[in-house]
């Protein structure tokens, strides 16, 4: 009975983790399914996303138009699948840009330290405090419209977390270098002392 009670207690403690894992797996499967539809959009859709058919406007979902049609007679399923391409690309490249920009920015800040670190991190705090839509608009005014402008704008606006992690690594690297140099110096001094004692015994 003690074993069964312990097993039940362990199962109760482990339930939240398993629930999170299950939710993560469901999310992963759904994301993989959306990615499959987006990649093979021309093969899974029956109509182009911009084809119009005024006679079929505002149709309810049926065997021909799975999600129905809009006011211009365009197939909603095709438009959603093709739109998923843009959404997934924006999400993926924004995450990559945020990671790269934030890590490089934070690493430089942490490695140089001092006033440079203060200025760079206060600038990141100001960007983080501003509304994201305002930061996006300002950056796109500088770099221009288009996918690259969106990726850069959202990457810079969302890179504060990566910048702080990069800053921590940048702070750690010089100390590790100093410790390694100190240990190497102690090792050399120890070897010299050992050789000196050996020569003294030989004399």
3D architecture notes:
The structure is a single chain. This protein starts with a helix and ends with a helix. The chain has helices spanning 2-39, 41-44, 76-112, 114-129, 132-143, 147-157, 160-202. It has 203 residues and is an all-alpha fold. It has 7 helices and no strands. Mean pLDDT is 75; it is low at 1-8 and 177-182.
Secondary structure: helix percent: over 70%
Order of helices and strands: HHHHHHH
- Overall mean pLDDT: 75
As residue ranges, the low-confidence spans are 1-8, 177-182
Note the total helix count: 7
Structural class: mainly alpha
Shape: elongated
Q: What's the gyration radius in Å?
A: 29 Å
Write a concise synopsis of the structure shown.
This protein has 203 residues and is mostly helical.
Question: Could you name the key traits of this structure?
Answer:
elongated, 203 residues, disordered N terminus, mainly alpha, 7 helices, 79% helix, single chain
Reconstruct the topology from this structure.
Blueprint: H1 2-39, H2 41-44, H3 76-112, H4 114-129, H5 132-143, H6 147-157, H7 160-202
Helix pairs in contact: 1-3, 3-4, 3-6, 3-7, 5-6
């Amino acid at each position: 009975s003690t074993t069964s009670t312990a097993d039940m207690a362990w199962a109760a403690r482990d339930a939240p983790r398993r629930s999170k894992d299950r939710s993560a797996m469901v999310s992963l499967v759904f994301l993989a399914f959306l990615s499959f539809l987006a990649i093979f959009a021309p093969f899974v859709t029956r109509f182009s996303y911009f084809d119009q058919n005024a006679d079929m406007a505002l149709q309810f979902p049926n065997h021909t138009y799975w999600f129905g049609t809009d006011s211009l007679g365009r197939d909603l399923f095709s438009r959603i699948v093709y739109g998923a391409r843009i959404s997934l690309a924006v999400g993926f490249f924004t995450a990559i840009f945020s990671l790269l920009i934030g890590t490089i920015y934070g690493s430089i800040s942490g490695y140089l330290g001092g006033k440079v670190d203060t200025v760079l991190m206060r600038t990141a705090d100001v960007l983080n405090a501003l509304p994201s839509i305002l930061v996006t608009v300002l950056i796109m005014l500088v770099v221009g419209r288009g996918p690259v402008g969106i990726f850069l704008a959202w990457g810079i606006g969302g890179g504060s977390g990566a910048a702080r992690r990069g800053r921590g690594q940048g702070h750690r690297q010089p100390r590790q270098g100093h410790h390694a140099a100190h240990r190497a110096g102690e090792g050399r001094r120890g070897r010299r002392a050992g050789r000196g004692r050996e020569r003294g015994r030989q004399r």
